[in-house]
Design brief:
The protein is α+β, with helices and mostly antiparallel strands. The protein has 3 domains: 74 residues; 142 residues, no CATH class; 195 residues, Orthogonal Bundle (hpI Integrase, Chain A), CATH 1.10.443. Helix content is 48%, strand content 11%. It has 20 helices and 11 strands. The strands form 4 sheets. Strands 2, 3, 4 and 5 form a 4-stranded antiparallel beta sheet that branches. Strands 7-8-11 form a 3-stranded antiparallel beta sheet. Helix 4 packs across helix 9, helix 5 packs across helix 7 and helix 10 crosses helix 15. It is elongated and about 100 Å long.
Length: 456
């Protein structure tokens, strides 16, 4: 907002017409004339007095509207819902489907804390469904297919939510942050979840500062500390080599075309989205039996539903994580995985696209697997392969922990950290921070070195 203190307020002008008298208040802001006409002299004098008071108190005036800055800002303000939707729209083209979901989830979580009334409010589940599934989903919101009940809920929110200007209040922000720290069932959310939500809300409010809808970032005035996130992998949840092989074999018994998929997560420590992106052109098969092959990774495939991908497809191809769109990464393929891949290619027809892991059932075979599909098979695998105690302890709770197991195996085998980081697609700092507790044998070696020094 462009403001100035160069303001001159003139006397009231009386206008005489066929319908009687009207009264015009005139003033200039940086020599730009402004006027407003009122039906009665009392109203005109009251409005002129407000301008004079603002001028005498040293209030800046907005050059564009000619109004005192607080009044101009209030008139130009947006509701929190409208501003949050504009933030979603600005981020949408540059965000992965997963990040779009995270943005929608964080904004849907804090919106109830910013409502000014509960009169006529929808049920909490209905409110969240409307916010998460429609208000903060650009694809669905602009589809023109919004159900009438969803439209009514969002119209109610628009009428009963704070303006973005009012979100600068410290008490309001503290209430919103407290809500970020809770799950839907009222229990404490995981530290990583809280940190992710807080980062998104911080960015949304920073966007308001950029657009001059807020003077300063509200987080500046709120002393609120989120729980410290623990990025380290819990070694108790990481399967060892024998158990990892058992899990992969069991998954193959349930769904044979997924045996090699889970094998890629363990033997080459691929992320699930990297494995979904694999095609025959990415796989360099060894020339001799028993030798190692190579993957040349070129991207990742996110399969979460077309309402989040922003396209007609249910998946989206993106570059490798934390790298440019054209970056590649070479990862070794041990003989055990070579065998799984060779068998997979022989037993399961590879579609014309060359993708190795695709849907083979339903009305659209040949599409990349959805996260729901392979996680469902993984849940069945854990039930079949693990004891009740192992399941309760969270061992191999998600397929991603096969990747943790693969990286841990490399580190425990003595592969230099720089090489492991390159293959895994991490920085060395992140690698050692995340996997510090998964490296076996270092304590024994350290004690032996200390003992040798003491004895000497």
């Amino acid at each position: 907002m462009n403001t100035t203190y160069d303001v001159r307020v003139h006397s009231i002008l009386t206008n005489t017409g066929q319908r009687g008298k009207t009264y015009t208040v005139r003033w200039k802001v940086e020599n730009r004339p402004f006027r407003d006409t009122f039906a009665t002299k009392a109203l005109a004098e009251s409005y002129r007095s407000k301008l004079l008071i603002a001028q005498r108190e040293g209030t800046a005036f907005d050059v564009a509207s000619g109004l005192p800055e607080p009044i101009a800002r209030k008139l130009q303000s947006r509701s929190f819902l409208t501003h949050a939707q504009e933030f979603v729209d600005a981020k949408w083209p540059h965000s992965s489907p997963k990040h779009r979901i995270s943005i929608a989830e964080a904004l849907a979580t804090i919106t109830p804390a910013l409502l000014t009334s509960d009169r006529g409010a929808p049920a909490p589940k209905e409110l969240r469904a409307a916010l998460y599934g429609w208000a903060f989903n650009k694809t669905r919101r602009e589809s023109g297919e919004m159900p009438d009940d969803i439209a009514r809920i969002l119209a109610w929110v628009e009428r009963n939510v704070l303006s973005i200007n009012d979100c600068g209040d410290a008490a309001v922000i503290r209430k919103a942050l407290d809500l970020l720290a809770l799950r839907l069932d009222g229990k404490a959310a995981a530290p990583n979840t809280i940190a992710r939500r807080r980062g998104i809300v911080y960015g949304m409010l920073k966007y308001a500062v950029e657009l001059q809808r807020l003077d300063t970032h509200p987080f500046t005035y709120v002393s609120w500390t989120s729980p410290k996130a623990d990025d380290q992998v819990d070694r108790r949840t990481v399967p060892g080599p024998a158990l990892a092989r058992k899990l992969i074999d069991t998954a193959g018994e349930i769904r044979p075309d997924l045996r090699a998929f889970f094998g890629c997560l363990y033997y080459s420590a691929l992320r699930p989205e990297e494995a979904l992106h694999l095609s025959r052109s990415n796989y360099e098969r060894p020339g001799r039996e028993g030798d190692w092959g190579w993957f040349t990774l070129t991207g990742a495939t996110i399969a979460l539903g077309k309402e989040w991908t922003g396209a007609d497809a249910f998946h989206e191809d993106r570059g490798l994580k934390h790298r440019s769109q054209r970056s590649t990464r070479r990862v070794p393929v041990p003989p055990q995985l070579v065998q799984l891949l060779d068998r997979h290619i022989v037993d399961h027809q590879v579609p014309p696209t060359g993708r190795l892991f695709v849907t083979r059932r339903g009305s659209n075979p040949g599409l990349p697997l959805s996260a729901e599909t392979y996680t469902r098979i993984w849940r069945q695998t854990r039930i079949k392969a693990l004891t009740a105690e192992q399941q309760a302890a969270g061992l191999a709770r998600v397929p991603y922990q096969l990747r943790h197991a693969g990286v841990s195996l490399w580190l425990n085998a003595g592969v230099p950290g720089t090489q492991v980081a390159e293959w895994a697609g991490h920085s060395l700092h992140v690698l050692l921070k995340v996997y510090a507790k998964c490296i076996d044998g270092e304590e024994d070696a350290a004690r032996q070195r200390i003992s040798a020094a003491l004895n000497a």
